[in-house]
Design brief:
By secondary structure, the protein is an alpha/beta fold. The protein contains twelve helices and eleven strands. The chain is elongated, with a radius of gyration of 25 Å.
Amino acid sequence: MASHVPDLDGLRLLVLIARLGSIGAAARTQGTSQQAASERVRGMETLTGLTLVRRGARGSELTEAGIVVVERATHLLAVAEEIEVVIDGLRTDRGRDLSVWASMTVAETLIPRWLVQLRQRQESEGSTPTTVSLTASNSTRVVEAVRDGSADLGFVEGVTAPAGVRHTAVGRAELVLVVAQGSPLSRRRTPLTPRQVAELPLARRERGSGSREVLESALAEHGLVAADPVAELTTATAILGTVLAGGSAAFLSRRVVERDLALGHLVAVPTADLQLHRTLRAVWSGGKQPPAGAVRNLVGIARAQ
């Protein structure tokens, strides 16, 4: 029985025509000429025996038959993307190990619980638990690791979505300004203005970290730049230790400091007019959806928190 199903590139072209309303625009998106795209459309119409695209003075639109084909093609193309990712994984011989990279805050406060839940889910399903290797770094390095294939999955934090990778939001985190109990700032009751915050001598993370990006972006909205740090450290734990020792103030994730705030070791200093929330994102390479299996399960667990 002869097949009347167009190839994947042809179906992708139809989807683009439906979205962009023009064969020319769809051709440019695919990196080909309008003439070549028109010939591909005619070839698909000959193959299917259907008129799929209606051309007009204002552009092109799908016929009723074309709309039905695109509706089914969208699902087929999503499955094809997943298969491509699976084949890529098999070709690179990654085996069952899963390499996860995460920003420092996520690695220290969230990932351990997520990995336990992943193992529990796999055991309950009767499957062999995936061996996971975890690397903690700043958000910029995590994205680089996903891009170059060192990481199968990454978790980052920051204001803007990273470029060059697929991503989805899995939560939000708040930065809070903290000082040691008994320090002069611990007795302050009125919020610090953005300018006062910018002038503070802080312990801060290195460039590339999500928390540093959030603070710098919040100050930049007021035309301000943070003063030089008194200490520049590579982990939230090191900054927390510095603050607890009375060394300086610092902006840290509320998740990192909530225990010390509750015990009275630290005091949260109020601030005003600063957007200090950041988005936590899962990042990966390949299709629009995370690769099926352990990667997708772990992203689902992170979203559910």
